[in-house]
Structure formats: C-alpha cells, structure tokens
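I'm stuck. Please check this protein.
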Amino acid sequence: MDIHNILFVAVLLTAMGVFSRSALRLISYLKVGQPADRVSDLGARLRTTLVVGFGQSKILRDKTAGPIHAMIFWGFLILLFSAAEMILEGVHDGWSFNFLGPIYSVITILTDIFCALIMLGTMMSLWRRYVTKVKRLQVEAEKVEAGMILLTIFFIVTALFVQNGLRSHVVGADFSFAVRPLSGPVGGLLASILGDGASVVFHVAWWMHAVLILGFMNYLPFSKHLHVLTSIPNVFLGPLTPTNSLEKIDFEAEGAEKFGVVDIEDFTWKTLLDGYTCTHCGRCTSVCPANTTGKVLDPRGIIVAIHDRTMDKAPLILKQERGEQFTAEEQAVWDKKLIGDYVSPDALWACTTCGACMQECPVNIEHVPAIVGMRRSMVMMESQFNDESALLPDIYGNMETNSVPWGGFGQSDRAN
C-alpha cells in the first residue's frame, strides 16, 4: 500500500463517515411521522418497482425527456460497477472485477456505451433547461443547482471514460477481460497527443472520478437530488390502491385528540419520505387540472413545502424529546404553521382529488392523501373553509347536525 492508497482510504473513510451521519439524520426525521404498513403484498410491490422504478415506465411517457432521463438512470446503474471498482483499486492497485471473466467484458462494453449516452444526455438536459427553457423546469431558485448537478454528472463520466481509455497506455496493460470499444480508441488518440503527459492525465482523471463521486454522494442529502438514493425505495413503498384512494377517518379511535394533518408529525413517515424523494420535475403540476385553469394549486410546491417543513421542524421535535430548550430562533420556527406559512389554504381547496398528479409522478409520490389530510384538519380542527363555501348555506353545519347539506329539518322530519 503506497501513499496513493493511504490517501484514498483516508478520503473514503471520511466521506463514508460524513454520509452515514447525514443518512442517520434523515432517517431520524422520518421517525417523527406516524406509522404506516408499506411491506404488504411484496409481489405487487416488486412488480411495480421493476416496471416503474427500474423500467422507467412513467418517465418514458414523455417522448423527449423520457429517453434522456432513462439513459442517465440506466447508465448510473451500470456505472455502479465502476464506482465499486474504483474503491477496490483505490484500496489496492490492480484490484478489479476482472475475475468475473466474460461478464466483466460485458460490463466494460456497457460502461463505454453508457458513458457516451450519459454525456449526451446531460448536454441535452442542459439544452432543454437553459436554451429551450421547458416551462415546468423553470424554477428560479433551482437554476444554479440543477446546472451544477448536470455538469458534475458530465465530469464524473468523462473522467471515467478518459481514465479507462488511457489505462493500457499508462499502466502497461488493461485488465485482461476488459473490452473498451469507445474509450479505447479515444484513449489511444489522447496518448499519442499527450505523450509523457498521459500518465498525469490518467491519474488526474482517476482522482477526479473518485472525488466527484464521493462529493456527490455527500451532497445528495442536502439537495433536491436526494431522489437519486430514495426513488427506488419510494416506488417500492408506494401505494397499491387507486391513485385517489383515501384513508377512512376513525372518529371513535380511543384517545384521538385531532383529525387530519395539522403539522408534519401527523403525516405518516411515508409522506415525509415523499418529500425527500420529489425530483422537482414538475410533471404533477403540468397535468393538474386546477393548475391548468389558473388556480394556485401546485402539487410540486406542496410536496416541496412538506419537505421544507420537515427539515425545519423535525430537528426541533427531536430536540424537544431530548428535553432541551429552544433558542428564540428555533421557537419562531416551531410557532410557524404548516398550513398558512408553508402551504397555501387556497391551494388545498383547489384540489379536485382527481389523482392526475399521482398518476404521472415518476417516483409514486402520494400528493392527494397529503392534500386531503391537511384539508381535513382545516375543516374538523379549525372550522376553516374556502371562500366559495361562504356563499352557500351552512352546508357543513347542516351535514353535522342533520346529515344533509340543506338545513331546516332533521332526519325524522324529512317525510312530513
């Protein structure tokens, strides 16, 4: 083990330690939510995961963005082998998956192909976001981050491609079962141009690939691209019922003090995971009939708001459970309300519960139950209604007292 390996192991252990801490933090936030059974009917869940998660069936409905995203996603799956091999080689020079024989040949061929496809896909994504300016992608607060992520992905695969192409020219020989139909010729051309500098470029590319992957991994828990890690689990744990199915309220539940969702601790942990998983792609909002007709409802915005409230309040809930006191700033955050400060009440009332958002969401986020849960708390806990209801008779009071929306008589007097 030389200085190169020692340095890499130090970087790897540091990166894994920081990532583990971030992952445990996010998991602890999920625990503030209500319990939910999401492991029943494993067969149906596995089928959904294969079709929607790995097969990208919902993404591919979009004939332009679908293939672009699919080639990047499938490429990432293939490049997991390269990431693992990078760790092996970083720990000990020469370690690889070459022992897999012909299987390794297939892996290296696919690696070359998908490196090229990912480079193409990231450039097309940048073009769609910043040149053609697809409407659902134009979120002002995310413009810089989205570009940085796409460029990071581009440089990760470019570094891997260059490293693989130069390996035989710098190390002396490539792994015996490696087949590099694209990076090989490019590496030969680069080696002839660079001469003695090929060794420097090879090692720079190797370290660039390693550092960018480890850095990207640690950036994910703090960004909207956390879905890179949570999308497949979220699809597996998603609903098996129709998209606009709602959970019944048990009004006779012993000890029930509130109904509906007042704040994040009233959501199930799965809804909080939905907040982690949102890709901010805007497909839900683009198909929402309320949004299309000019209403303030933005399904994407609601899921993002749930995520933001989770990040703000969950640490305080855990701090309170430890018996610690809030600072003045923390108390101000605690006193905020999910409905009103984060989510617009008018947006909740605009939802028709049609389920179009859930039907189109590529990671099976459950918008409708979250929206209806908050709307239920407005009605049953706060007696808050939308402006239109003020123009009607006391329909909610009549339904509560007379079991009918029109007033004036009770059930026993209806036949008189």
In short: The chain has two domains: 3-30+62-222, 264-384.
